[in-house]
Amino acid sequence: MPLQAGIVGLPNVGKSTLFNALTSAKALAANYPFATKDPNVGIITVPDARLDKLNELVNPKSLVPTTIEIVDIAGLIKGASKGEGLGNQFLANIREVDAIIHVVRCFRDDNVVHVDGGVDPVRDKEVIDTELILKDIDSVEKRIDRLRKQAKTGKKEDAHAVTVAEGIMEHLNQGNPARSLQLEGDDAELLRDMMLLTAKPVLYVCNVDEASVNDGNQYTERFKEAVKSEPAEVIYISAAIEAEIAQMETIEERNEYLEMIGLHEPGVNRLIRATYKLLDLITYFTVGEKEVRAWTIRRGWKAPKAASVIHTDFEKGFIRAEVIKFDDWVKYGSEAAIKEVGKMGVEGKEYVVHDGDCMHFRFNV
Question: N or C of the chain: less Cβ packing under 10 Å?
Answer without folding.
Answer: N
